[in-house]
Amino acid sequence: MHEASVTVGPGLALSGDASAQQKSAKEQIVGAWTLVSVTSEMDDGKTGEPFGPSPKGVIIFSNDGHFSLFQSRAEIPKIAANDRAKATAEEAQGIVASSIAYYGTYSIDENTRAMVVNLSASTYANVAAIPNQKRTITLLTSDELKFDNPRTPNGMTLRTAWKRAAAP
After folding, report:
1. What band does 151 get if pLDDT is binned at 50, 70 and 90?
2. 8 partner at 20 to 30 Å CA-CA among 22, 38, 93, 129?
3. Eight-class DSSP state of 109
4. Which three-class secondary structure state does DSSP give residue 27?
5. Is the dihedral of CA 70, 71, 75, 76 positive or negative?
6. What is the C-alpha separation between 135 and 124, in angstroms, rounded?
């Protein structure tokens, strides 16, 4: 079956597959997605790739409103002692700067396609303390997902792109 994307608003597309059009965004998002890219955009227009040009990652959405995310650079520094409890300060800093993981719950406003996440825990505890974090879904098809994470306190927006890893 040929599938097309239909643009619904500024950059927002929904799947052109007839069966997918009958599904809610929450039903469409359920499953596992692999990371394609992460770009950052500052308020002044500067862009970057916080996890490098070939990031690795996965995000999994369950149908009961739970999710889990892991993102990293293609290469994460190894620990010379081969024991994570014995990482040097430099090794630990390199690992923290190269990766993030968190999990929690999510909900989607079907009218605006805004996703709200509440983190239960994170490798970056500061971010887990922020309730009701908004993500803006800019593309959702049966095999592509893109969303923005506006991080206004530091003037940065993270734009992530994912491809379907497994069918829900």
Report:
1. confident
2. 38
3. E
4. helix
5. negative
6. 18
Task: Please report, in angstroms and rounded to a whole number, the separation of the first and last CA atoms in the chain.
Answer: 18
What 3-state DSSP class applies to 25? helix
21-49 residues labelled b (16+ CB within 10 A) or e (exposed): eebebbebbbbebebeebbbbeeeeeeee
**How many angstroms separate the CA atoms of 14 and 27, rounded?**
12
CA atoms within 13 A on the CB side of 43: 6
pLDDT digits (tens, 9 = 90+) for 17-68: 555 558 999 999 999 999 999 999 998 899 999 999 999 999 999 999 999 9
CB proximity list for 40: less than 8 A, separation 6 or greater: 47, 48, 49, 50, 156, 157, 158, 159
As given in the structure block, the two tokens for residue 28 are 């469409």
* Confidence at 2, pLDDT banded by 50, 70, 90: very low
Tokens 């890219």 found at: 37
Chain centroid, CA 51 distance in Å: 12
Q: What is the mean pLDDT of the chain?
A: 88
Is 33 in contact with 158 (CB distance < 8 Å)?
A: no
Residue 4 near residue 13 (C-beta atoms within 8 A): no
